[in-house]
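re the bet — no i am not wrong, look at it urself. input seq straight from the record:
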Amino acid sequence: MTVRQTKLIGLLGDMSWEASVLYYRLINQVAHRRMGGHHNARSQMFRPDFDELNALAAQGDWTGVAAVVSDAAATLEKAGAEFALLTAVTPHTVADQLAGAIGMPMLHIADPTGEAILAKGLARVGSWASSPSACRHGSASR
């Protein structure tokens, strides 16, 4: 029997545990559907304390947000993650700083989202985020 070794996904968990559960379930459902059998996504999740990130973002302390998110991603990388998947808008607000702080590739949500928007020919879209993150996000430029 040949076992397909997939990359280890480092999930920088959503800021609420409720949303993290949904992402985790969906990722594993897709992996199971694609690979069959009893397969699941090889993944690990790290969730910073949302209250801390929310307070930093509300104060406009994006350097602090970047430090917390970078530490979380570094923890995943040290544990063997081969790429980072950010599952919330707040970490994306500091994605450029994060990309420079870690050695593994990172999937930015704006890239596949933008591809889907262009493929569908949509001229106007909306997104959902906390006020501080929405004001700073800047995904439209990607």
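see?? The chain is about 50% helix and 10% strand. told u. also The longest strand covers residues 9-12. so pay up
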